[in-house]
Amino acid sequence: MxxxxxxxxxxxxxxxxxxxxxxxxxxxxxxxxxxxSVAVVVGGGGLARSYIDVLRRAGVGEALLDEMGIESxxxxxxxxxxxxxxxxxxxxxxxxxEVIEAHMSGLxxxxxxxxxxxxxxxxxxxxxxxLGASMLLNCLNGVxxxxxxxxxxxxxxxLRRLTYSQLESIIERVSSQEAGSYTLWDKVALGVARRxxxxxxxxxxxxPANIWRALKGExxxxxxxx
Amino acid sequence: MxxxxxxxxxxxxxxxxxxxxxxxxxxxxxxxxxxxSVAVVVGGGGLARSYIDVLRRAGVGEALLDEMGIESxxxxxxxxxxxxxxxxxxxxxxxxxEVIEAHMSGLxxxxxxxxxxxxxxxxxxxxxxxLGASMLLNCLNGVxxxxxxxxxxxxxxxLRRLTYSQLESIIERVSSQEAGSYTLWDKVALGVARRxxxxxxxxxxxxPANIWRALKGExxxxxxxx
Amino acid sequence: MxxxxxxxxxxxxxxxxxxxxxxxxxxxxxxxxxxxSVAVVVGGGGLARSYIDVLRRAGVGEALLDEMGIESxxxxxxxxxxxxxxxxxxxxxxxxxEVIEAHMSGLxxxxxxxxxxxxxxxxxxxxxxxLGASMLLNCLNGVxxxxxxxxxxxxxxxLRRLTYSQLESIIERVSSQEAGSYTLWDKVALGVARRxxxxxxxxxxxxPANIWRALKGExxxxxxxx
Amino acid sequence: MxxxxxxxxxxxxxxxxxxxxxxxxxxxxxxxxxxxSVAVVVGGGGLARSYIDVLRRAGVGEALLDEMGIESxxxxxxxxxxxxxxxxxxxxxxxxxEVIEAHMSGLxxxxxxxxxxxxxxxxxxxxxxxLGASMLLNCLNGVxxxxxxxxxxxxxxxLRRLTYSQLESIIERVSSQEAGSYTLWDKVALGVARRxxxxxxxxxxxxPANIWRALKGExxxxxxxx
Amino acid sequence: MxxxxxxxxxxxxxxxxxxxxxxxxxxxxxxxxxxxSVAVVVGGGGLARSYIDVLRRAGVGEALLDEMGIESxxxxxxxxxxxxxxxxxxxxxxxxxEVIEAHMSGLxxxxxxxxxxxxxxxxxxxxxxxLGASMLLNCLNGVxxxxxxxxxxxxxxxLRRLTYSQLESIIERVSSQEAGSYTLWDKVALGVARRxxxxxxxxxxxxPANIWRALKGExxxxxxxx
Amino acid sequence: MxxxxxxxxxxxxxxxxxxxxxxxxxxxxxxxxxxxSVAVVVGGGGLARSYIDVLRRAGVGEALLDEMGIESxxxxxxxxxxxxxxxxxxxxxxxxxEVIEAHMSGLxxxxxxxxxxxxxxxxxxxxxxxLGASMLLNCLNGVxxxxxxxxxxxxxxxLRRLTYSQLESIIERVSSQEAGSYTLWDKVALGVARRxxxxxxxxxxxxPANIWRALKGExxxxxxxx
Lengths: 226, 226, 226, 226, 226, 226
Ligand SMILES: Nc1ncnc2c1ncn2[C@@H]1O[C@H](COP(=O)(O)OP(=O)(O)OP(=O)(O)O)[C@@H](O)[C@H]1O
Ligand SMILES: Nc1ncnc2c1ncn2[C@@H]1O[C@H](COP(=O)(O)OP(=O)(O)OP(=O)(O)O)[C@@H](O)[C@H]1O
Ligand SMILES: Nc1ncnc2c1ncn2[C@@H]1O[C@H](COP(=O)(O)OP(=O)(O)OP(=O)(O)O)[C@@H](O)[C@H]1O
Ligand SMILES: Nc1ncnc2c1ncn2[C@@H]1O[C@H](COP(=O)(O)OP(=O)(O)OP(=O)(O)O)[C@@H](O)[C@H]1O
Ligand SMILES: Nc1ncnc2c1ncn2[C@@H]1O[C@H](COP(=O)(O)OP(=O)(O)OP(=O)(O)O)[C@@H](O)[C@H]1O
Ligand SMILES: [Co+2]
Ligand SMILES: [Co+2]
Ligand SMILES: [Co+2]
Ligand SMILES: [Co+2]
Ligand SMILES: [Co+2]
Ligand SMILES: [Co+2]
Ligand SMILES: [Mg+2]
Ligand SMILES: [Mg+2]
Hints:
The structure is a homohexamer.
Chain A: E1 3-8, H1 18-33, E2 37-42, H2 45-57, H3 62-84, H4 96-104, E3 110-111, H5 120-130, E4 135-140, E5 161-162, H6 164-174, H7 187-196, E6 200-204, H8 210-215, E7 221-223
Helix pairs in contact in A: 2-3, 5-7, 6-7
The structure holds adenosine-5'-triphosphate (5 copies), cobalt (II) ion (CO) (6 copies) and magnesium ion (2 copies).
């Protein structure tokens, strides 16, 4: 059974919108009906950022801010897990071990972050690797895919196909390692993708039907090879 | 050592505001310095309500909505626990057992909800009972105390002292048992308070210094006896 | 698959009787064979009461007495779980999360209480709600159903059909909230039943075959509506 | 700080008697006040035996019967843990790891059994070994110490001092390995005692003050050496 | 479905050899394909011994040395669990409860030791008992079966069939109860086997195909009866 | 109280050597006596590599290989935790949460890896950040510090002081992201160090007294700033 991992940006889940979420459910359940074995990883998005920002300014250290972000992503994951019940266990999963267990039971594992020092993108990559997924579908919130630079910058243009090295040089230019900062993808996640040759799609998921289009390679960016 | 339990309304925590939270920290740490053994229970507030509402309209059952509310209150509790670190363990506690363990180590236990069918008010009452607290301080978000009716209703007036039975008849008139609905207090919490003779203060906590005033009985409503 | 929840009074389990328990097993396995998805919640009964009474008189507080009651109900649940093995996991389950997990695996979840401040009746109601059960079967120990008053009182008579409100006014007259006290049903459980429209049967279960009769509405009391 | 382990026979705890238990509490707290670091292990006694017997006759296998016995001993341990609160954590501990953790926090660890295939006597021996206890005090229910044979047999006489080998040959003659059977001590426990040179006292504990007497060697049997 | 338990000597796993382990995997998967429900218990072997020896000489007590041995056996079990994935959950299991859970899901449970005072042989016996296994296959590292004495001693000869009592008198002559010491089998394990009438095969497993031969009784020693 | 984190190379622990380990214990206990609050993170070293290599060649995926490495590092951590008992809890800790809990109890937390995709170096950095450590002491096995290139290469020379960026460009040239590969340090760990401004010492620890020398900056390499 072909496995795919869907990473859902936190911004698509919080604040929660009924109409969007029921459409997302239809697509994710639909993937299962079409024979895919699905796993979902959810980001912390704005919810994480608001809690992290206040704590940082109150003097709390970065490792605990990471924990705050993980717990926020887990709340978003909880929402999705209950939405997908009974095809998902209705609670967010907290480790690779639990994700594998749910996958082996034929359910859709839904998780947020796992441990400090690691983004939800890295979690998605590790999950994809563990399940032998053919593709990691990165659902973005209003971004069409990977741009040559921070999308809002003049001159930034969408790249339809990239190698791991090309993605690496982009994220080196753009990224920051503070807990909760805006990033498309990060180096741990990239390292995991590279060592196992994962194919990663990045695409705008404000329309959940785009998940199908991205799976077929019709939209967004594909990263693989090199 | 005299124990007090502080129930913090979710609305005071989410969305998080730096200035408010650092003042709240000062008061809670100050209670400890003044010789009180403090425990904190945090509500889910608007964060819980937004996640619950969407899931309810998506057809998810009430028991899972309760779980969603519990997980939301736990995220708020996590924020407070990290704020109070290192006088609190920097993670939210998930059962009475964990709360007792932290209390026995001389830390400030911080928790949200425990199990479906039970509000964070009931959790606060059970915690107060378990720690033998002299008072349960109910920090409200913009409500001065217990009113004779839903505060927004014409004719509702603030009651400075009430018996358990008077509180009971008020909540019977006003309450609803749907997950995440607005309630001042509920029957489980009331039953626990009554069986152990807990003294409960209700007061507006938009100024955290009010916690001290409520402790001295200067403001808000006090429920006990009868 | 139609789900039913069977709440077994602790008095039916402790002290344990071989002949009774094997007949109970036959009925519970039989429900599964007839196509029902069953969940079982077991009360603490006299075992709980004897441990609670001694601790209360030794000065232990009510919240810990609730915990003692929960642990006792869990021992009774353990007995039933092992009796029902391998159609049940042979250990008592300790949270709604574990109950849902077992149910999703096609097993009969067996649990006792979950958290202080909540009776095993409330647990049964929450479980029924979580599994979308069509009926909550309340197996009593020597009581025919809901009476208009404490059954031993002169003039108390059996009610065959009641609304939630009627049940509420009866339990208001009869109940007490002390840990381990004798009660037919309680307000938390009632609130949960009402918010989800659960149908509850109360009946004497000294003959386990009565479970079938109650399911068909032939004996005992049915509470629903209003 | 000198550590001692007190193994309390299940028969002394179930059915629970107020007067006995408060006296036992006084002695155990008193040991702490006298400078001993105490750990308690509680047996399953008659409670365990009644649940095990019914399940065995219902066809349940020996490993699960052991689990039933462990859970029963844990209920008895729970009673003692709540009785000793706040000098004990008010919950029974389920592994050596938890026992060591409580001991390191300066609390009295209270546990029942740990795992199938191992009696609560073996648990007491392992705990004594882990805490470097100077003595393992075996509180019996109406038996004065180690007899040369099953005490009810004619000719059986009390032995005041024995070697491990003498104890071994007695238990070889008397013991059975069925879950829940009546035994003074067993070979695993003996092996543990021997490898670490633990001193074990056996004495009648129907008067809790005997714990002090046994500690001084005034009553009962002492096993050590050889 | 007929269940068999395979106890794998730690010496067969550590240091790990690719060729051996892939052949072992083929046999274990093959048993499943042939209709057996398999469970695996792995010993600690030389890995355990090296860690235990150093700690003992550094003055660490026997109970913690047992824990060290358990953790070592669990590392060996982890290797086997990952090797057998996805027919095994890819993590070592830490209690009978987890083993039963995996077995009930149709997977091959793989575990090491459980608790101090108990060898991995005893774990294998308890697991065999819990799963109602028809046979416990004891895979030895370079020993043909049970000898009349320590195999290296002159005059020691292989016994093809033995009773429990014969095995008992052999291990009494040979065994030691120190953590990590070399023993063929121990008394707890023997007691468990006897109470449930388990059939135990002992055989040299340097060729994994011997598992099949032992199952048919063609090689090694069989212990049962008496 | 000043906190320091000591990362111990797996190669220093496995195979275990009595004389080395008792000297290491003296130094680590000595740090505590000198007023430092110590935390220890232990690597997997050759033990991890041997188990990983065999599994990789048997076709097991990288995420599970990471888990194998984590479990191996945890076994090494277990050895150290037992060695340091009772100043350490005698079990390896498995998450940042557990590490913080032990640190708050005044004990020396000892852990191995936490989650796949993250090395024990990254764990050490996260722990240092969480405890507000003034220094991360990286105990290497036979390497004097950070070299300008893979130490065995001709022309590689020891660097006494480096910035984060200099370290980054060195590890970019040398590193590989395969589970269990030989690396001095990695990018996640570096990112964590940089965001919190951690000072990292690298030095040869074949003589444990070097820990004191490195703390004073007398030997090895120091990374900080830039
Ligand atoms: N080169 C780039 N191409 C595309 N997006 C980029 C690039 N550089 C930075 N970004 C930023 O990465 C983010 C990707 O959006 P995404 O929906 O994952 O949001 P997010 O806030 O990171 O969500 P989550 O926290 O849930 O992962 C956007 O904020 C986008 O501006
Ligand atoms: N008689 C009454 N007196 C006072 N408040 C009442 C009364 N009846 C209803 N309420 C409502 O109870 C709520 C009490 O406020 P509170 O700050 O606890 O908010 P909350 O949203 O319930 O928070 P949380 O979910 O965190 O507990 C208010 O919404 C108030 O209008
Ligand atoms: N109006 C009433 N109708 C029926 N039973 C009532 C009523 N009022 C009180 N009761 C009491 O409720 C109890 C119901 O019996 P049940 O078998 O549930 O016993 P229990 O001891 O509460 O068991 P458990 O603790 O396991 O729930 C009886 O003791 C009965 O006398
Ligand atoms: N040689 C012996 N000397 C003393 N007691 C013996 C001997 N042989 C058998 N026994 C039995 O061992 C038991 C010791 O009593 P104890 O109070 O430990 O009861 P128990 O039921 O085993 O309790 P628990 O299950 O809690 O350990 C008694 O039943 C006693 O008859
Ligand atoms: N530029 C460099 N400077 C120093 N060491 C380097 C460098 N590049 C690679 N290395 C390698 O990094 C390793 C550092 O040694 P260390 O003692 O941490 O061993 P390890 O096997 O990584 O241990 P563990 O798995 O426990 O972390 C050595 O194998 C060394 O050859
Ligand atoms: Co798969
Ligand atoms: Co207190
Ligand atoms: Co269902
Ligand atoms: Co000690
Ligand atoms: Co089976
Ligand atoms: Co600190
Ligand atoms: Mg409220
Ligand atoms: Mg009842």
